Amino acid sequence: MLSQTLQNAINDQIAFEISSALIYKAMQAYFEAEDLPGFANWMDVQYQEELFHANKFFTYVCDAGGRAAMLPFEGARNEYDSPLEAFRTALAHEQIVTSRIGKIMDLARQENDHAAQIMLQWFITEQVEEEATAGLIIRKLERVEGDGRGLLMLDQELAQRVFTPPVGTA
Predict the structure, then answer these.
(1) Domain 4-71+80-158 in CATH: superfamily?
(2) Which of 18, 37, 45, 160 is the most buried (most CB within 10 A)?
(3) Is the model's pLDDT at 66 over the cut of 70?
(4) Alpha helices per DSSP H over 34-113
(5) Cα 133 to Cα 17, 91, 109, 115, 158, distances in angstroms
């Protein structure tokens, strides 16, 4: 049975994941307006991933005998000075997500909730990938800054990203 403390922490994370989805959807809108459809696609996939994460937490709370709750969340920013600023913002946001999930893992360990720890390990591994991917795109943007051709090549690369729900992780 899920403790009330852990249930509250995971419910808060559900709201944060939904907020994260909206942050990425707003970034998608920014890139659409900037005529960078590949960047927009990348952000749309990120949006879908965040909703998947929220649902994974939601399902876990329900499966563990708790009550999932939809809590209020913060709005999203709609304007950026450049693609580089948007991705720096995305990386900073992912670092916050990593920190929050780590705190929930610490709580699960304190409560000896092994099932929660197993579920959270997937998210910890996912966050390593999220931060690495955003960091790589930032480094590429830094290399091409001021070169429109490089930006367009990166846009084409990011257009190839597709959301594929992980197998066996619903």
Answers:
(1) Ferritin, core subunit, four-helix bundle (1.20.1260.10)
(2) 18
(3) yes
(4) 37-63, 83-110
(5) 18, 9, 28, 28, 11
CA distances from 118 to 76, 105, 122 (A): 31, 9, 7
CB contact at 8 A, 39 and 20: no
First CA to last CA across the chain, in angstroms? 19
Query: What tens digit of pLDDT does each residue of 121-158 get?
Result: 999 999 999 999 999 999 999 999 889 999 999 999 99
Give the domain ranges of the chain.
Answer: 4-71+80-158
pLDDT one-digit tens code per residue, 26-45 = 999 999 999 999 999 999 99
Query: Residue 34 in contact with residue 81, Cβ under 8 Å?
Result: no
Taking the CB of residue 121, how many other CB atoms lie within 10 A of it? Answer: 13
8 A C-beta contact, residue 135 and residue 87: no
Q: Which of 58, 53, 48, 61 minimizes the C-alpha distance to 125?
A: 53
- Asked if 11 contacts 116 with a C-beta cutoff of 8 angstroms, the reply is no
